[in-house]
Fold this protein.
Amino acid sequence: MRSHEIDYKIIGDDMQLVEVELDPGESVIAEAGSMCYMEEGIQFETKMGDGSNPNESTFGKLFSAGKRMLSGESLFLTHFTNRGNKKYTVSFASETPGKIIPVNLPDFGGRLLCASDSFLCAALGTRISIAFTQKFGAGFFGGAGFILQKLEGDGKVFITSGGSYVKINLNNEVLRIDTGCIVAFTEGLDYSIERAGNLKSMFFGGEGLFLATIRGTGTVYLQSLPFNRLADKVIAMIPPKSSTSFDSSDSSSSD
């Protein structure tokens, strides 16, 4: 199934949303709960499959949904379709502050691997499945996890980053990365986990025990603020509860 051709615009700076314009009969699929607003001609339906194979059996849809759960995502995807007779729009936003990255899959051979929490929405016809990292070390110690999401198709997809993002093109080169900073990379790149220097650097350098290493030729998208780093900072700023409490009865005096 060919992907629907959708138009879009990204609104905002640091806490963005993407507004997708659909022609009559066009659809976009999205993670459950990511919709911000939609115009009156848009109708939505929650489904187990991504809709890339209209003839897929019920068992096939259950199997695909189960694989999505392995990557940490919801069992369901929401399908938004323009049932009107003119163009209508629907918008989506990430749950965390950051940027929305539009990706045209044909520019990358029709395939992109992304971290389990970075997919936002895509044109109907995009196949969403899972891919295992090539090495066990990458799965156990890498921020992207042992299971990645694989996006396949010939249309547009939208992924999200925490904070700002950078796109790096590698030409038979090596890139070492904080494990939580990986958003997505093209298929064919070698992804592994290596020690962050010597023992002193590993335990006292502040960069963690391991770094992700990506080798080869392709494209990598990185984020400046992984959600776990942001969450750790917020938790560290919460003052501890006082061990003493004021009891009004203690202040009263008896005759």
About this structure: The chain has one domain: 7-237.
